[in-house]
Amino acid sequence: MSGILWIELVVGIIISFTLLGLLLWAVKGGQFDDGKKQMNGLLFDSTEDLQDAINKENKIKELKAKKQKNNLA
Amino acid sequence: MSNVECTHCNLSFPKEVMIIEEPDINFSKESLASPTDIRYFCCKGCQGVYHLLQDDGLDSFYAKKGKEKLSKPLAVDEDASNFDLDSFKDIYIKKNNDGFSSIDLVIEGIHCSACIWLNEKVLNDEAGILEVNINFSNHKAKIIWDEDTIKLSSIIEKIRAIGYNAYPYKAGIKNETNVNKKRDYFSKLSVAIFASMNIMMIDVAKYTGYLTSMSEDAKFMIHVAEMIFATPVLFYSGIIFFKGAYFGLKNKIINMDFLIAFGAVLTYIYSWYVLVSGSGNSYFDSVAMIITFVLVGKYLEVIGKKSANDTIDSIKSAIPYEATRILNNEKQIVSVEEIQIGDIIEVKNGQKACVDGKLISTYASFDQSSISGESIEVSKSKGDTIYSSTINTSDVIVYEATTTYANSTFNSIIELLENSLNTKPKIQDITNELSKNFSLTILLLSILTFAGWYLYNGEFENALIVSISVIVIACPCALALATPIASLIGISWLSKKGLILKDAKLIETFNDIDTIVLDKTGTITNATLEVVNISSNKLNKEELNILYTLTDSSTHLVSNAIKQYLQSNYNDLEFINLENINQIAGVGINATYNNNKIYGGKGSLTNTAYTSFEFKINDNVVVSFDLQDSIKEDASELIEFFDKQNIEVHICSGDNENVVKNVANELNIKNYHANMKPKDKYDFILELKKQNKKVAMVGDGVNDTLALSSADISISMASGSDISINVSDVIILNNSLKSLMNSFYISKRTYKFIKQNLFISLVYNALTIPIAMAGYVVPLFAALSMSLSSLLVVSNSFRIKKDIK
Q1: How many CB pairs under 8 A join A and B?
Q2: Residue A27 and residue B146: Cβ atoms within 8 Å?
């Protein structure tokens, strides 16, 4: 019985600390700098916004590549 | 006369004054403005932005915004090409490692998260922009873009096109330090709260287990789990206290941080001893709780400092960063810092003066609301003083600088404000002071207990357990809870009454207030003009229609008030064809009608208690109006309330003596002060404080900001400027004076309960500590009894709300 409890305890602690680690990683990245925006963002997230995020990533990649090319030239 | 809401900004206006659009077939499901609805717009700006958003497929903005009211789109005439000048780039634009440019801006006109969404969406859709991040709380934005693809001026124009405006600001090192510090504290607090909540859950099992005699194995398991959660709290979250203790010791001071670190470490070591030896009860829960409770307070302090810094940044962004200097008949755009005394400066319509000076042009009119708070334009003639940050509402003018930028009026105000916000005296927190002395006493008593018992029976373990019991039973939890829990209940009740208190400590300050300084415009008056006297009511239909059309042609406050008066008192008003309509800023409007000279504007009588308006046809006065700012309905009740509370009331206003005297007499207020500039109000409050008075200041405008920052408690109306709200300790959301009375009543009542709670916890400790020192309490019961005292304090606090209906 107590063997199972020990396993549960260890697994529980590993999972909860992993989630905590993810939270700290997000805080470090600045995701929680603006609490209000974060909360309101939940209301606005849509598939269109996800598509926008992908487009933005692609745009950044293109601009960086272009810049690098210009710098080398 | 029915009011309708503007489709874009949701502000309500009479249907007659709206621009009406018939429904079209371009239907968007997401838009709240259904195609079957007629669309109303309060101005061309709203209409323009609405159509721009429709054309760009951004109409889902309206669904996101919901019923949130926006301000009218900002019409900015300023040329955005200034943003591309080298002098501007040197100051505000930074280059990152990849060669992209970045700038920090403050976006003006943001009201809700839909505004943020719209700005970010519009900018992100632009080619060449890599990153746009707008902060909801302080409206600061960081934009990273590629200068080879898009110019900064185009970015700014895009922001202006959708009805917002942007100002650059210099994000200094201080700003970055504050952001990093806030992040660091947020991480530490997250860990502490996460671990403490888990420990609380484990505690339920632990204490239930003690009562039902759990096995040694289960007890060990619980102690291990608590240790795992308590360790990061002590060594990660609690590192702040270790650092504080180290610096304290370095300076030979035993500070609060030392006591917290020492108490927590001692309890942690003892708990490890229990864990390894298997005898007794561990107190890992106490370690986590102590650190978490104190850390919450520290985090709030960090947020407070950051918000003070954000406020100053947003004020600074409102000052022009460059000016047009005329040297040898040539115009030069120079940075404001380069302006010297004697330089000739040109200011276009809508632009702000950057330094103080003397008017060279024959005539000018200025909006001085940032300095005096008066919403009415001020006329200036040659030789009159021009103040920095005031807006030119006339045509292009030139003036001679009499100060440099550093010594200008507005910059001096900012410097004072910066000083005032950073050194604002925090009210001596009785509880903190008490727990500090209390902790030191308990620490000494515990050491004495240990020494006494060890000398008495020579048993180290017994002496250690008894001394730990003393620490645990006297854990200042109840004392620490006494203030926050009562404050929390008081604050939540205040918020239900439309009041936001920025700091719980203010509840104590409210209790000490003996003087209140009220701003006039917008605080005790409605800040809208109303017609109070009319010289004649016998106007014929033609005269009425001429006057109605004339007042409609201007957006001036006085014109609006006359127009509204006509609309509510006369039926069948019609617009007629006036010709040669010409507005003379600060004076009135001229026009012609059937070869007759028409004039509407300033009356010949000045410096009366009223604002006057005359309507003339061919230089003959047809009718004259007296207008006055109306007093809010609860104002006299408020003054009576302060009288009963023995609180001295003062009115301070930038308006002329007659106007202020009139309001003061009507409300029976003896102390009134007119013609006060921001610095005068600030000095007046400092003078009151010198007389050992505890001063509360109530205001709403930018001109009140400085005075607000110097008062013991600053209260601001939510309808006021963003800056005054940021500086204030208390915000009245519903702008009602009744709420102002409530703030005093509830705070005083809450403070009474805080004192009761402190009494309960101190009596508890006075009774239990001697019992613990005598060795009659084992640590387990010490912990239970400690929880009981906390419970007592919490349940007493709930009585605050129970007794108030």
Answers
A1: 83
A2: no
Supply the pLDDT for residue A15. 94
One domain, residues A46 and A17: no
Q: Are A44 and B64 a contacting pair at CB < 8 A? A: yes
Whether A57 and A24 share a structural domain: no
Q: Are strands B330-335 and B322-327 parallel, antiparallel or unpaired?
A: antiparallel
Q: What whole-number distance in Å separates Cα of residue B632 and Cα of residue B698?
A: 14
Q: Give how far B146 is from chain A: nearest CA, Å.
A: 8
Residues of chain A contacting B99 with CB distance shorter than 8 Å: 67, 71
B49 CB-contact burial (10 Å; exposed 0-12 / middle 13-18 / buried 19+): buried
Note the helical H segments in B474-569: 477-496, 506-512, 541-552, 557-569
Contacts of A32 in chain B (CB under 8 A): 183, 186
Q: Count of domains in chain A?
A: 2
- The single residue listed with the structure tokens 């040659």 is B382
Residues B57 and B533: their CA atoms lie apart, in Å, by: 51
Contact B740, B731 (CB under 8 A): no
Tens of pLDDT along B393-449? 777 889 999 988 887 877 777 776 666 555 443 433 555 566 556 667 877 888 899
Q: Which residues of A touch B (CB under 8 A)?
A: 2, 5-6, 9, 13, 16, 20, 23-24, 27-28, 30, 32-37, 40-41, 43-44, 48, 52, 56, 59-60, 63-64, 66-67, 70-71
Comparing CB atoms, the residue among B99, B179, B228 nearest residue A13 is B228
Q: How many CB atoms lie within 10 A of CB B67?
A: 7
Residue pair B312/B421 in contact by the 8 Å Cβ criterion: yes
Give the domain extent around A11. Answer: 1-33
For residue B311, give both structure tokens. 């406020």
Q: Which residues have CB under 8 Å from B749's CB, separation 6+?
A: B490, B800, B803, B804
* Nearest partner of B516 among B662, B359, B636, B646, judged by Cα: B646
In the numeric block, the tokens 């910066």 are attached to B418
Distances (CA, A) of B701 to B201, B411, B632: 49, 17, 17
d(C-alpha B606, C-alpha B390), whole Å: 23
ipTM reported for the complex, 2 dp: 0.78
Amino acid at B399: Y
Q: A24: nearest CA in chain B?
A: B187
Write down the pLDDT at residue B802: 55
Tally DSSP H helices, then E strands, for chain B: 26, 31
Contact assignment for B99 to A67 by CB distance below 8 Å: yes
Q: How many CB atoms lie within 10 A of CB B629?
A: 25
Shared-domain flag, residues A73 and A38: yes
Contacts of B221 in chain A (CB under 8 A): 2, 5-6, 9
What pLDDT sits at residue B225? 93
Domains detected in chain B: 3-65 (no CATH), 80-171 (3.30.70.100), 173-317 (no CATH), 322-422 (2.70.150.10), 500-524+632-744 (3.40.50.1000)
Closest chain B residue to A22, measured at CA: B187
The residue type of B89 is: K
What is the structure's pLDDT at B428? Answer: 36
- Of A23, A36, A43, nearest to B190 by CB-CB distance is A23
Both structure tokens of B400? 């001679």
pLDDT < 50 positions in chain B? 29-33, 35, 423-428, 804-805
Q: Which residues lie closer than 8 Å to B784 by C-beta, 6 or more apart?
A: B207
Set of chain B residues whose Cβ sits within 8 Å of the Cβ of A24: 187, 190-191
Chain segment B76-92, per-residue pLDDT in tens: 656 677 788 777 777 78
